[in-house]
Amino acid sequence: MSGPQMSDLPPEVAAAVQRAAMPDFERWHEMIKSAGGCEQPVRLRGERVTLDGETGELIESYSTDDEPTGFLITACGNRRASRCAACAEVYRDDTYHLIISGLTGGKGVPEDVSGHPRMFLTLTAPSFGAVHARRDKAGKVQPCRPRKDRPLCEHGRPEGCGRRHQADDPQAGQPICVDCYDYQAAVLWNAHAPELWRRLTLAVPRLITAELGITHKALREQARLSYARVIEYQRRGLIHFHAVVRLDGPDGPDQPPPPWATAELLARTLRTAAAQVAVEVPHPDPAAPPMTLGWGRQLDTQPIAVAAELDGIADKHVARYIAKYATKGAEDSGTVDRPIRYATQINSLKVTQHARRMIWTCFALADLPAYHQLRLRGWAHMLGYGGHFSSKSRRYSVTLTQLRQARADHAAHAARQAEGHPEPDPNRATVTTGRWKYLGSGLMNGEHFWAEQARNRVQQARAIRNQLTDRNDEQKAS
């Protein structure tokens, strides 16, 4: 294409055309398609060799020196949709299969697991001050916080709000009065939420033994509590826990639970445990008594039914709901998705004022000796929460590592078939070593267009596959 014609194109399209004209484009395009159209691909230089474990004979070798690009591209693997939509989709699919296999079987879990008592548990944070919220009743938006006589708080501000907030209203989740809001307690609650969850999982077996009148040893010989959970950030900057909780036999999903293990017992003990567990932490004011942090009053337990039943929330809906939040982060509450290194950066952040105050509170509390172990400065962008976004008990279902290894094995098998290489001998001991150097990450000029095209193709293929899977499941259920 001539210079005048190129100048008529938008800059990004012209850059894409120029990139396509480079001699290494075909191989680079293959790599970016293999990476699923990753938005932050990692460039590596190095080599890998596979040797016979007994004779030392060279079986296979690979070097980026033989690549037209001079490097190898791999996907970044970031789970956050705000950082890389392509890798987040892969993580969401993996999380879905992790959850659904623990509900319906598959991936090494027997199908009989669908008959075990299972609950979908939602735990919330307590209130640390009134916030603006969208409220619906019978499909009609209600006033936010109507108050008679329009009372004022101690700071001279209205305690109520008569506005009807829309779903995208930026005021939703913001405090009614920022001076009344307890930012210190809110940050400390986020920081101690993982400990609250740990204590909940320990309290449930204790409550079951107390109700049944058996010892803990007897309980371990009869049943096991399994779970998988994710967190969700609310717009007020505090987190929700969404979890699948299941009662199994003593060795996990491979064994049926005892006759006394019912969904009603599980729901009852979950609610009691959530009301009882608490964490006592030092108050920021040394002269004040310790703070007691617990779960909020809003708690929901719903039995999980198989898809063909109507007396509970369907297992597939639960798995999709949890997988959706596995790729989200604190940025949904108005903060940033990257660590904040210096306090001087806080004022220039493009965040809500509520999030800014929580970030400032993290930095302020981090300097107090009582909270050094919480590493609040490093987790300020997460508004104090430093735990995992998703986790599971040991024997709930398949692991993410196993799912990724299965995907890697499938890709390697497909590559060997395409190149006409034989399958490796499973009885032959081999040793694989590699030497790699990080060159950088991200897309260069003119590459964004082609990566987006590859990403769209992958997403379309995934959507078609999911539709076919749903159709087959419906046919089996009918």
Structure commentary:
With 478 residues, the chain is an alpha+beta fold. It folds into two domains: 3-81 and 400-477, no CATH class; 85-128 and 182-392, no CATH class. Helices cover 36% and strands 18% of the residues. It has eleven helices and 14 strands. It has helices spanning 3-7, 11-20, 25-34, 85-104, 183-212, 216-222, 263-276, 315-326, 353-366, 400-419, 448-477, and strands spanning 42-52, 58-63, 72-74, 118-123, 135-137, 140-142, 224-233, 239-248, 278-281, 291-294, 299-305, 313-314, 390-392, 430-441. The strands form four sheets. The protein has a six-stranded mixed sheet with strand order 12-11-4-8-7-13, sandwiched between helices. Strands 1, 2, 3 and 14 form a four-stranded antiparallel sheet that branches. The chain has a two-stranded antiparallel ribbon with strand order 5-6. A hairpin with a 5-residue loop joins strand 7 and strand 8. Helix 5 packs across helix 7 (263-276). The protein is globular.
Tags for this entry?
single chain; 478 residues; alpha+beta; 2 domains; six-stranded mixed β-sheet; four-stranded antiparallel β-sheet; 11 helices; 14 strands
Would you spell out the secondary-structure blueprint of this structure?
Elements: H1 3-7, H2 11-20, H3 25-34, E1 42-52, E2 58-63, E3 72-74, H4 85-104, E4 118-123, E5 135-137, E6 140-142, H5 183-212, H6 216-222, E7 224-233, E8 239-248, H7 263-276, E9 278-281, E10 291-294, E11 299-305, E12 313-314, H8 315-326, H9 353-366, E13 390-392, H10 400-419, E14 430-441, H11 448-477
Parallel strand pairs: 11-12
Antiparallel strand pairs: 1-2, 1-3, 1-14, 4-8, 4-11, 5-6, 7-8, 7-13, 9-10
